[in-house]
Structures are given as C-alpha cells and as structure tokens.
UniProtKB/TrEMBL annotation, chain A:
Identification of the protein by name: C2 domain-containing protein 5
Segments of skewed composition (Low complexity): 295-310
Keywords: Calcium, Cell membrane, Cell projection, Cytoplasm, Cytoplasmic vesicle, Lipid-binding, Membrane, Metal-binding, Protein transport, Transport
GO molecular function, one term: calcium ion binding
Region of interest called Disordered, as start-end residue ranges on this chain: 254-315
Native species: Cyprinus carpio
A matching Pfam family: YbjQ_2
Listed Polar residues bias regions: 254-264
TrEMBL record, chain B:
Pfam families: FIBP
Name this protein carries in UniProt: Fibroblast growth factor (acidic) intracellular binding protein a
Alphabetized GO MF terms: fibroblast growth factor binding
BP GO annotations: platelet aggregation
InterPro entries in alphabetical order: FIBP
Signal peptide: none
One Gene Ontology CC term in the entry: nucleus
Source taxon at top rank: Eukaryota
Length: 993, 360
C-alpha cells in the first residue's frame, strides 16, 4: 500500500441553475479514484454550496497514482429522477508524487462539461502521503520529474544527460466503439477524455521507469502527442531526454552552469569505433538540409521503405588515416555512443555542450493505418518509428555527427494514410563537462574553438562533403571551415556571435493531389513528398538570402495531408551568423534573352530584389564587419560574389520530374524565368510583406539583438479556418495559403500594436486540413515588449556579448580559455585587460535581459494584487523576462473535448472555438494556481482538432495543451545584496535567459 | 473562398477601448470598421481593411462573452474565464454603465417597465442613439433599480458596492433610481430646458434631505431607506400652510423680506409685487407633497409657480438667491411661526433646486 491520496471538497461557487422552479441547485460531489467513489452530502438550494467535507482517503498503489487522475463530479440531486451531472474536474496528481514539486493542490478549479463548457468552480484540497517502496521490480516511477522545457530547467543543473527515451501506448478510440452508437455525446466525450488521461499517465509512468533504469531522475524536453487514427485506434506517444538533475539550493545560482556539475562516476571513455565521419555521398541537396530521404511507398504488405539516398550511407565503412586524426580532437560524447538513439529533444544547451552542428536531418514515411489488434503490443507503431529513427541516425552519421539535437517527431493523418515525420539537427556534443579533470586533448580543444563560432565549424570531412556546399574559413576564428549556410532545428546558442537581428522566415506550399484510396493514395503521397520538401527548401533558401542572412534556427517543417491536397509549412528564424560568409544575392536569369523589353523586365525585377535585400539588411541591422584579409594570413577562399539559385516551375510537372535532388551540379542559384506569370509569381513569393515598425518576430526562444525585455508579456492563440473553392491550381492554392499565413501575421501585429516595441517570440504555426476544402492554421506565441532606451551599437554589441560570455566560466577556468578570448577582445579594444573585463561586469547589467524597467515590472505586478483571482502568466518560452523561476511544480498536460449541438446559438464556429480556447486557458491557469504556481512556461497547444457540421448545427473540438507549472519571483523583488555579492554569476544566468 | 473561422485569444484578454465604445454605442461590425478606418488607425499601424474587420469581429465577440459578467460586475473580479487586469475591469464596468444624457432625459422619471422598453425605438429615433445602445442603457437602469430596491442602507453606497461604479456615476444612478421610484414628471415641454445633471443634482438634494435615510443617518441605520421620502416630514409640511393662510403672518413675512431686500437689487419692485404670489406657490407645493401624485409634479410646479414668474420679471439668479435667502431666514423671525425645523429642511432643498434650475 504505498500511497494514500486524500481529498477534501470545500465549496462551490457560480454553479448553474439546475432547478428551473427555484432558480437554484441542490449540489453534491462524487470523488472518484480508480474504482473507489466517495460522496459529499447534498447542499440544498444554493449556487454557492459549502460542503466542507471530511477528508476522503484512497489507499492505492503508486502505479495507480501515476496512471489515474482524481475525478471529481459535481451533480444536482433530484429526488424523483436521475441526478443531473453539472460537470467534472480531472486532477492530475502526478505533481504531488515528486518531493521537489508541489505538496498540495488547493484552490478553485473550473467545473467542466463537454457540452456546456465551464459551469462554475469548485474548491478542493488534495494531498498525497507516499510511502517509500524499495521494490526493485516496481512498476511505478514516482519521483521522476518531467519538464516540457527543452533546455535544462532554470533552477536545476544537469549532472548527467543520459539521452533519448521514448514510449507509446495504443488503445481503441471510444468514439469508434460500437457502444458509441447508443450513448450520449457527453458520455462518449467523457470516456475519451478519461481514456487519454489514463493513457498519458501510463505513458509517463513507463517513460519514468526507463529513466530510472538509465540512472536518471528527470525527463527534459518531454513531448507527448496523440494520434487520432480513427477506426484504427488511438496512439499516445512521447519522447524526451533523460537527465540526472540536481536542484540548485542556494540563490543566486548558476542554473545552467555546467562546470559546477559534479563529476559523474559512470562516465566512460569515448569509443571511436563507429564514429567514422565523412561518409561520401554522391547525391543530396546542395545545402545542409540533408533531409530528403523519403520512403517510396511500396505496395507490399510489409511496407518496406526505400530511401532514395540511403544506400550509400548504409554501407558505411570506417574511414582511416588523416581525417580520423582530425576528429580525435573532438571527443564524441560517451553517452551517445552507447545509446541506441543518440537523440536529444533539447533545443538549448549549457554553453560548451554543443561543439559542432552539421545540419538538419529529417525523415518521413507514409504508412497505411490498420486496426490495432492487440493494444498491449503496439509493435507495428513502434517498428514504424524505429525505422525513422534509424534513418535519422544514419543521416547524422553521414554528416559526421554522432548525435541529433533538437529532435522531434510528428504525424499527419488523413483517413487511413499517415505520414510519420522526424527531424533534428545533426551535432557533435562535448563530454568534457561530464568528466573529472580536464584532459589534455580537451585543453587543446579549448584553445582551438572559440565558443562564439565553434558550433558553426563543420563536423564532416571537407574532402568528403556529404553534399555540395561551399566551405570557407570561419569568419570569426579563421581556423576552421564553415559552410555557407546553416540550417538547424535548435535554438540559437546563447554564445553564438550574431550580426544584427533575426526574423521569422516561412516557406508555404500547397500541392493538389488526386483523391485516391488505400495503397494508391499512399503511393501518390509518397511520390509527391520529395517535391514538396524540395520546394519548401528552395523557398526557405530564397527568403533567407532575400533577408541577407545565412542561418536558420528552430526550423520546423510540417507536412499535412488531406484528401485532395498536401500542405507544407516550414518556419524558422533567420539570423546572420558572424562566423559564416555573407550570403550572395539572388540573380534572375531569363531563358530567352532575345527580347529587349523582356530583358528590361528582368533587370527591373533584379533591381527590386536587390533593393529588398538592401532594405532588409538595414531593417535587421546586418552590417558585418569588413573582412580585412591581410591581417589574418590564412588562405581564405574568395568570397563568392553571389550565390545562384534555381527555382523549379511548379506549374509544369514535367519539369519537376526531371529534377533530382542533386541539382547542385547545375548552376544552382539562379532564378529562371520563362514567362511573365512566373515573374509575378516569383516576386510575390519573395516579397512577404514586411513586419510593421516596432515589431520583430521569431519562432525561437530568444531573438538575437534584443536583450532588454520588459516584464510585459502576452501569450495568445489564434486559429483560422479558410474555405477553398474547388478546382484550384497549385499556384492558386499556394497564393491562398501564403496569404492566409501573411494575413494572420498582419492581424497579430495589429492586435498587439499597443505592445510596441515588441517581439513575437516562439511563433508556432500548425496547419491542418480538417476537411476536403478547409485549411486550418493555428498559432501560439508570446509577444514580449522590450525597452528601446539603450540601442546598442552594432560593433559594441558583439563586444559586449563576448564579455558576458566570458563570465560563463569561473575564474579558475579562465586561464584555460583566455587566449582565444583575449585575442578576440583585443581586436575590439586593445587596452582591455582582465581587470577591466571583470570590472565591466556590473556596468553590463543593461545589456542583459534584466529589464531596465525593473520598477515598472514591480508596479505591474503589484497592480494585479488587488484582484481576488491570482494572475497566472503563460508563455511558450522556458523563461519569464525580468523574473527568476524558483520552483518547478510539475508538468501540466491537459486534454479537453468540447461539443455543441447549438452552434448558431453559441456564436457560430468562431464563437464556439473562442469560448473553448478561453476555457482551456482558464483551466490551465486554475490548475497552476491550485498547485501554488504563478506561471506556465514552455506552454504549447499540441493539438487543436476542430470539426463542424453547420447543417446539423453541430461542432466538436479537441484541444491538448502542456507546459510546466512554476513559481517565479521578479528579479526586482529579490534581495539586492545577494545579487551584488555574486554579480558575476547572476549575470551569467541572466545572459543565458 | 472565405474565412470560415477566425479567433484570437490572449492569456490576458485584449480589449481595445475605442472598439469597446463603438460596441457600446451599438454600432454594427461594419459600421464600426468604417468609423475605425476614418479614425486613421489603418495608416498608423500599416493595417488593411481586412485586418480591421477581423479585429473588430473578434473584439465584438469578446465583449459579447463578457457582457453577461458585466451585468453583475462583482463577478468580473472573481471569474476565471478572462484574465483582465483590475484597471481594465474598472474601465469595462464604468463604460458599460455610462449613459447618454440625452437618452436618460427621455426616460427619467418613467416607470422602468416593459412598456417603456417597447417605446425605446421612438427614443432612439429622437435622440439619434442606436436602439441597441438605448436598450443597454435602459436595462442597466432597470437592473440597478431592481437590485437596490431590495436593499437597505444608503442608496449611493449600495449602488457603488454592488456595481463597482465610481462615485459620480453611482450618484447619477441613485438619481435615476430615485426618479423612477417616484415617477417624477420630467418630460413636459416646460421642463425640456433642464438637463439630466440638473435633475440629478435635485435628486441628490432630495435624497440627502427629505428621505427616511436622511434622518436615519443620525439615529437608526436599520430603517435606513434612501429611496422613499420621509412620510412624517411630508405630513409636517402641511403645517407650513399657515404662512399663506394667516393673513398677518403673510404680511409680516412680506415686510421682513422687503426690508431686507430694499436697495440691494434693481428688481425690488417686481419682487415686492410678486411676493405673495411666489410665497403661495412654494408653500402650496410643500403642502401638496403628501400626495404621491403631486410629488410627481414637483418639478413642473417649481417651474410654473416660481421659476417662470421670476423669469418673466427678469430676475437674475443672483436676485433669486438673494430673495430665497431672505425669504427663508425671515420666516424664523416671525413670532407665531413655530415650524422652524421643517421650514429649514424644506427651504434648504427648494432653494438649491431652484437655483440649479434657474437657467435658460
């Protein structure tokens, strides 16, 4: 009997009127856990009942504690007929099972009904007494902490990063069971909600067990998804990164300071056997997006997949000689080598953890769904993901990398066809923070790599580049080769040297496809996928160059499948990495240069494009320092004057099919035009309307070039559904889709205009095709205001950045890293000395994200205190500007269904969804407040499935949200003395915000 | 091709003051968009008409969802659905309960019944205020009336606490409730020149001096009722009749007032000539107030019996003030006049009401 769950029902308020005659309600409450149910007394004739019940005690296994939610049902007592349900509250008690998280759940929680929405609130108290169970064969994993945050949580430090954990559970979807035909929609919805609650509890427990097996105590970057496979079932799957975390008890502390981490005894010396890098690849796209391997659908029952370019990779032969030596200097991480999948769901790392980034790796596969016969053995689904992960792994290897970071998995389902996708960033990670004393090789390594550019240096062998890329010497250190463009799925490393500001870049694409069934459909889709991905990639590249930038971070490509079309949306944040060469312009070439007017037309187009590039450079403050080659006597290849770009014509399918992915051999970066239509098309494609003055946008955690955030944040979700006309061409569709996204962005800017100057961070677009002619776009992001008061000069800025970075290292280590730093600093101001470096620390406060408007943040915080409802902040980011997270209270993972059969009366589809989303926010806030928290970080809406039937006046929506409940305190409220004494370290943690 | 669904939900509910006002004014979405375009918000923010339409629809929807909470403002503070900063909540409530003076003039003193509500379309046409806005304002009056009707204690304070209104607005509502309760006639042509604020001022005077609550402030809070006039006081007012029925007293009073006024004004002759007439008017009003029906005519009586005669004699408001001051004070010197307390209580209110109402 390892646990005792106690619950007390205190009171209710704002209950709905259930008795028309008296305009009152006779409410009582059922409290259910597992198969045990308790009831309170009936509190007659009140809309604000005071039950003040005894403590209901459930004695249960901790396994059940993890799997089951506490279910509270509020009912209206009826003497003559059946009692009417008012609504339910599901309470996830997982946060109470971990000693470091919440200790009690107490507060007003909304009573929710799937038909009526929120119907009043109930005040409850929930506690858990847990007895220690030392049984080695236990099935529970109480105490393992879960974080949605994709970096090491703020008040912890990573003792050890163990690696990838994954699990999936399947079940029949209650909505598709025979019984659904005879039960009410409410009963069906509740069955589904409860089942998904159970399944995610079970999933979390199983993942926890794996973590314990690995010796960890936490999962970071926990990503849980649902696949509503319809007839064939319901899949809940999750991935994450197992870690051993240690709470930083003293304050202020360096949350992400890797050097503080205690040495791990388990660490083993890295082995090199399979780490042979530099696999030659004959084919591949001409950029680091080494993604285009598709499963060509084969109709055989086994659905064996063929990778268009994987043949060579799979016949890996370890390289010998020269370049192995080269790689000796980069010790591969031991924790990766012994892992089956050296994948990390993290997107941000302690400084120095990430050594090199190879590029994006991704894999997709098209599957036909089949009924899951035995829910206890979800082997088919497991095998599918295995395949994909294997492929990702081999791609990473081909890029000379032993790990994949920023890894994520997703699906898109339409009828019985399912596209599985996985993507990540191939990388080389350091193990030095994990080991006892620094080794010689690492010392050498330390001297070699400056943290501001090290991650850009190619991990693969330059003689055997896996794809045709232009390599140059690093523009920062001049010692190592860098690619001309870098695409990644991770956040911009805090230590990266960046010129200017970044911006959101999106590639959008629609492709029509014929309606088909079964295998034919799957084949059609898998043959379309490569072109879709190729064009998205080309668009991204064009748009990147148009903004004068050379790297993408946070790249997320989403492919959605519908009955008659495929939708592709790629979002990323473009930046100019100082270490990488300046991107060339875009050149337009006509195919028939005979006509003079045509020539003129082309030249005006060219001029327009050049002007746009210049304007963008100004807008994003991209003015990289001039390269003075004489000073550095290293052989730098001539910077290319322009890169050339090739664009395929989507309207001509013949031409498309001629394309192979190795088109890099041709003259690559010329925009070819053969008719005026295409000109317009290209121009429209390239010129996204600029963001209004005062706005910036990105889909990553932080925006390079903006640091002085104020405390004003506004998280929001916006959903749009667009109905298309039938019989649209690909081009027409593209335009509509692109306009839809652009208009949505414009609306957001307009809505948030009062926050200017402000940046929309973590702009997360999700697209779906809910019906044949519908496109759904959902966006969740946070708008954050910043102070413009201290505009930093560009040159100065990078200098200051470096200084802040210098403080990441404790003093004793400074001797080790100093040479590269000093040389870099001295180029900025030769008189700078160590003393100066330290003394400037306090003056740097302004450059750190600590908002200048400290007093302002305090004021705004206080002004809320008058309200009787606690204010809960929500943000998709892992931090709150100007504040310090002092405690993580546990993961929030909620699933809601809402249905209506009076759609018109509820304000139509918009009114219905507006209310539902507001209700979901309210429930998240209430549960966080009940845990004692005042914010949700790393919040995301992972699922928003909306279905309507206006003819029947019906609609249904499913929403799944997750995040980490936290307690934060304003930095201005913290003791200033303690901040001062350890100013260097606090600044360090600030800088990593 | 059309946008089928378009929603925006912020963790902190975003509400644009300008759009809120347009919504309160009863504009349709399309009209509101037109007004906004004319306001130049598009150029300011580099937005298109499409964006404006989407934003306006979204805001309207938010307001509609909030409206049910605004009917019980106290709920706004402890509801969970919308996270609205307290200063915003106060703004929402204040503006929701704000009303147009031209509208309130039309319904002031009328019974807040379904019948009156049916006539609102006429009011709407007459005032140029949209029917939707008229209905909201009317419903607000009715809602406040219903709530405070049941409550004991000071009227203004009750309204302020239950509807979280700022002081001035709470006073205005108190006036509206008071007028509706007594059904004061305000619509006659002769009263048209008076503004709502004139009436509100008078209502304030009546509430503070003539109601049960006005007495109750000094003794018993239990019986405190601000809405009803003090019946005992009204009964006592009948005793004032002696001032006009007793010939000696009337002459004495006139002499005293004339002595005091002589040489202080250039309309002395008119005042002297009219004294008996005016005095009869004021005392008769006092004596009739015991009848509920005559209470309704209180303002029209004041105008007909006092203000109009004075105005035709071209008295300035300074003259009127002077006259009323001496008229009131002189009565206390009269030997046989015993009803000093009632007289003070009566004339204090009459004087300030007349002075307030004495304008063009």
């Amino acid at each position: 009997m390892p646990g005792k769950l106690k619950a007390k029902i205190v009171a209710g308020r704002h209950l709905p009127v259930m008795d028309r005659a008296s305009d009152l309600t006779d409410a009582f409450v059922e409290v259910k856990f597992g198969n045990t149910t308790f009831k309170t007394d009936v509190y007659p004739k009140s809309l604000n009942p005071q039950w003040n019940s005894e403590w209901f005690k459930f004695e249960v296994d901790d396994e059940d504690l993890q799997d089951e939610p506490l279910q509270i049902t509020v009912l209206d007592h009826d003497t003559y007929s059946a009692n009417d349900a008012i609504g339910k509250v599901y309470i996830d008690i997982d946060p109470l099972l971990c000693s470091e998280a919440a200790t009690v759940i107490s507060g007003w929680l909304p009573i929710y009904d799937t038909i009526h929405g929120i119907r009043g609130e109930i005040n409850v108290l929930v506690k858990v007494d847990l007895f220690n169970d030392l049984n080695r064969f236990r099935q529970s994993s109480c105490g393992v902490k879960f974080f949605c945050t994709t970096s090491i949580p703020r008040c912890y430090r990573a003792v050890m990063v163990h690696g990838f954990v994954e699990e999936l559970v399947v079940n029949e979807d209650p909505e598709y069971q025979w019984i659904d035909r005879i039960r009410t929609p409410r009963a069906s919805n509740e069955a589904r909600q409860r089942l998904i609650f159970l399944m995610s509890g079970e999933l979390q427990r199983k993942i926890g067990l794996k973590v314990l097996e690995m010796g960890g105590n936490a999962v970071v970057g926990y990503l849980q998804c649902f696949d509503l496979e319809g007839e064939s079932g319901l899949v809940v799957r999750a991935i994450g990164t197992a870690c051993t975390l240690e709470k930083i008890s003293t304050f202020p502390a360096t949350a992400t300071h890797p050097n503080n981490s205690s040495p791990s005894k388990d660490m083993k010396e890295p082995g090199f056997g399979e780490e042979a890098p530099g696999v030659p690849l004959s084919s591949g796209p001409p950029t680091p997006l080494r993604a285009q391997t598709f499963s060509s659908f084969s109709p055989s029952k086994s659905y064996s997949r063929q990778s268009s370019s994987s043949d060579t990779e799979l016949s890996l032969t370890p390289k010998t000689g020269g370049h192995l030596c080269h790689f000796c200097m980069i010790p591969p991480s031991p924790f990766c080598v012994f892992q089956e999948y050296p994948f990390f769901t993290l997107t941000a790392f302690p400084p120095g953890f990430l050594l090199h980034v190879g590029g994006v790796v991704s894999a997709r596969s098209v599957k036909l769904l089949d009924r899951i016969h035995n829910p206890d053995e979800p082997e088919t689904r497991d095998a599918w993901w295995e395949e994909i992960r294997q492929e990702i792994k081999s791609h990473a290897k081909a890029l000379g990398c032993h790990a994949v970071v920023g890894y994520s998995e997703s699906t898109s389902i339409c009828e019985e066809v399912c596209i599985l996708s996985a993507s990540g960033t191939a990388a080389v990670l350091s193990s030095r923070f994990m080991q006892d004393g620094p080794l010689d090789t690492e010392h050498r390594f330390e001297e070699v790599v400056s943290p501001g550019c090290g991650f850009c240096h190619i991990p693969y062998d330059e003689l055997n580049i896996p794809f045709p890329a232009q390599l140059t010497y690093c523009y920062c250190c001049r010692r190592y080769k860098v690619p001309d463009v870098l695409f990644t799925t991770i956040d911009l490393p805090t230590e990266a040297n960046v010129t200017g500001k970044g911006c959101l870049i999106q590639a959008r694409l629609c492709r029509t496809k014929k309606k088909a069934q079964g295998e034919g459909n799957a084949t059609a889709i898998s043959s379309l996928l490569p072109f879709l991905e190729y064009e998205l990639h080309t668009q991204l590249m064009n748009k990147l160059k148009l903004r004068g930038m050379n790297a993408l971070f946070g790249l997320r490509i989403q492919i959605s499948v519908g009955e008659t079309m495929l939708l592709g949306l790629a979002s990323a944040t473009g930046v100019y990495l100082t270490a990488l060469p300046s991107p060339g312009g875009i050149q337009i070439a006509g195919k028939t240069p005979s006509d003079i007017t045509y020539e003129q037309h082309i030249s005006t187009m060219q001029k327009k494009i050049n002007d746009t590039i210049d304007k963008n450079k100004e807008l994003y403050e991209i003015n990289p320092p001039e390269v003075v080659e004489e000073i550095i006597g290293s052989p730098i290849p001539e910077p290319r004057q322009r890169s050339r770009l090739f664009r395929s014509h989507s309207e001509s399918s013949d031409e498309v099919s001629e394309l192979d992915l190795s088109h890099g051999k041709k003259d690559a970066f010329v925009l070819e035009i053969d008719d005026t239509d295409a000109v317009e098309d290209i121009h429209a494609l390239l010129t996204d309307s600029p963001t209004p003055a005062g706005f910036y946008s990105c889909n990553t955690e932080i925006m390079p070039g903006i640091q002085n955030w104020t405390s004003a944040i506004q998280m929001f979700t916006s959903v749009r559904v667009f109905r298309l006309n039938a019989n649209l061409t690909n081009q027409g569709l593209n335009k509509i889709f692109s306009d839809l996204c652009e208009n949505l962005l414009k609306s957001l800017y307009f809505k948030l205009r009062s926050m200017v100057p402000c940046c929309l961070c973590h702009l997360n677009f999700t697209v779906a095709i809910p019906e044949d002619e519908l496109i759904q776009v959902a966006v969740t992001a946070v708008a954050m205001s910043f102070d413009k008061e201290q505009p930093l000069e560009n040159g100065k800025q990078s200098g200051e950045k470096t200084l802040i970075k210098g403080k990441h290292r404790p003093l004793k280590a400074m001797s080790g890293i100093f040479p590269p730093h000093l040389s870099f600093l001295s180029s900025l101001s030769p008189s700078l000395s160590l003393a100066l470096l330290l003394s400037t620390a306090s003056s740097l406060e302004k450059a750190s994200p600590l908002p200048e408007g400290r007093s302002r943040s305090l004021r705004s915080n206080r002004s809320y205190s008058g309200s009787s409802v606690a204010v809960v902040k929500m943000t998709p980011l892992s931090f709150i500007p100007g504040a310090k997270i002092i405690k993580y209270l546990g993961i929030i993972n909620m699933f809601f269904i809402r249905e209506t059969s009076s759609l018109r009366e509820e304000g139509g589809v918009s009114g219905f969804l507006h209310t539902f989303i507001a209700e979901v926010f309210a429930m998240v806030r209430a549960h966080v407040a009940a845990l004692g928290g005042n914010a949700v970080v790393s919040y995301s809406m992972k699922e928003c499935v909306f279905m309507e039937n206006p003819n029947k006046n019906q609609a249904q929506c499913l929403i799944n949200v997750s995040g980490d409940a936290v307690i934060f305190v304003r930095e201005s409220e913290l003791e200033s003395t303690s901040v001062q004494t350890q100013s260097a370290t606090t600044h360090t943690s600030n800088a990593t915000l | 091709m059309s946008v089928e669904l378009d929603v925006f939900v912020g963790n902190t509910t975003i509400m644009d003051k300008e759009v809120y006002q347009l919504w309160l004014n009863g504009y349709t979405v399309n009209d509101a968009v037109k007004v906004r375009i004319e306001g130049g918000v598009m150029e300011e923010c580099e937005a298109s008409a499409e964006v404006l339409l989407s934003d306006t629809m979204d805001q309207y929807r938010t307001f509609q969802m909030c409206e049910r909470l605004l009917h019980h403002p106290a709920k706004l503070a402890n509801q969970l659905l919308f996270q609205i900063p307290p200063d915003r909540q106060a703004m929402l409530i204040e503006r929701y309960y704000a009303f147009d003076d031209s509208f309130v003039r039309e319904v002031l003193g009328k019974k807040l019944s379904k019948g009156t509500k049916k006539d609102l379309d006429d009011v709407s046409i007459k005032t140029g205020i949209t029917l939707k806005s008229c209905r909201r304002q009317f419903d607000n009056f009715k809602r406040v009336f219903k709530v405070v009707e049941e409550l004991k204690g000071p009227l203004v304070e009750n309204i302020r606490q239950h509807f979280l209104l700022p002081d001035q607005l709470a006073r205005d509502y108190a006036a509206i409730v008071f007028f509706a309760n007594h059904r004061f006639e305000t619509g006659k042509k002769k009263l048209q020149y008076l503004t709502f604020q004139d009436f509100a001022f008078c209502a304030g005077q009546l509430i503070n001096n003539w109601t049960v609550g006005a007495v109750g402030k000094t003794n018993n809070m239990m019986e405190d009722m601000d809405v009803d006039l003090d019946k005992e006081f009204l009964q006592d007012l009948k005793d004032l009749k002696i001032l006009i029925t007793d010939k000696d007293l009337l002459d004495q009073h006139k002499n005293l007032v004339c002595t005091a006024l002589r040489g202080k004004t250039n309309v002395f002759n008119e005042m002297e000539a009219n004294f008996k007439n005016l005095s009869r008017g004021l005392v008769n009003i006092a004596a009739k107030l015991i009848n509920a029906k005559d209470v309704r005519d209180f303002f029209i009586d004041l105008v007909e019996k006092f203000i109009e005669p004075c105005r035709s004699d071209k008295l300035t408001s300074i003259d009127v003030n002077l006259y009323l001051t001496h008229y009131t004070n002189s009565a206390h010197i009269l030997d046989t006049f015993k009803h000093h307390a009632v007289w003070t209580r009566y004339m204090g209110v009459i004087k300030s009401c007349i002075l307030r109402m004495y304008h063009d």
